[in-house]
Amino acid sequence: MLHAHVRDSIHVIFDCVRADDGEKIEEFRKRLFERFRKHMFEGSQDDMKLIDSVRSVILSYCCLAHEMGSLTQRPSQRTSLRDATQVGQMTILEDDSQLRHLLEEEDRSISEIMVHTLDLF
């Protein structure tokens, strides 16, 4: 598995693939982050699809990495989060721009994890 394949896969995961995702990218991202938060606070929804689960796993990793560190950053190097709610060990961000920033910040770590995990298979 090449890094380019994983980058393409991540791009597809966070692209409009559900029929109700919408066409405008900002509208889509807002709904994506809302679905993630609803899943974290209320559990799985009736309309939850496999793609939503994959997105939730990746976004959960980003939220946990902020608290616990990741392959590329130590927890102490992070800025504090505003407008966040604690769910177990995870801090769920209420601000879409902060959640998107965490996703961008962890892009390299996510890519590395996926490449080496998929290499096992």
- Look at the structure and give the mean pLDDT: 82
Q: How many β strands by DSSP?
A: 2
Summarize the main sheet: 2 strands, antiparallel
Q: How many DSSP helices? A: 5
Unreliably modeled segments? none
Order of helices and strands: HHHEEHH
Q: Strand sequence of the main sheet, in spatial order?
A: 1-2
What structural class do helix, strand and pairing data support? mainly alpha
The percentage helix is 55-70%
Shape field: globular
Q: Which band does the percent of strand residues land in? A: 5-15%
Distance between the termini: 10 Å
Question: What's the structural domain tally?
Answer: 1
User: In angstroms, what is the radius of gyration?
Assistant: 14 Å
Walk me through the structure.
The radius of gyration is 14 Å and the shape is globular. 59% of the residues lie in helices and 7% in strands. Helix 1 (3-13) packs across helix 5 (107-119), helix 2 (25-42) crosses helix 3 (50-68) and helix 3 (50-68) packs across helix 4. The chain has a two-stranded antiparallel ribbon. By secondary structure, the protein is mostly helical. It has one domain. A hairpin with a 2-residue loop joins strand 1 (84-87) and strand 2.
Short description:
The chain is mainly alpha-helical and about 120 residues long.
Please outline the helices and strands.
Blueprint: H1 3-13, H2 25-42, H3 50-68, E1 84-87, E2 90-93, H4 96-105, H5 107-119
Antiparallel strand pairs: 1-2
Helix pairs in contact: 1-5, 2-3, 3-4
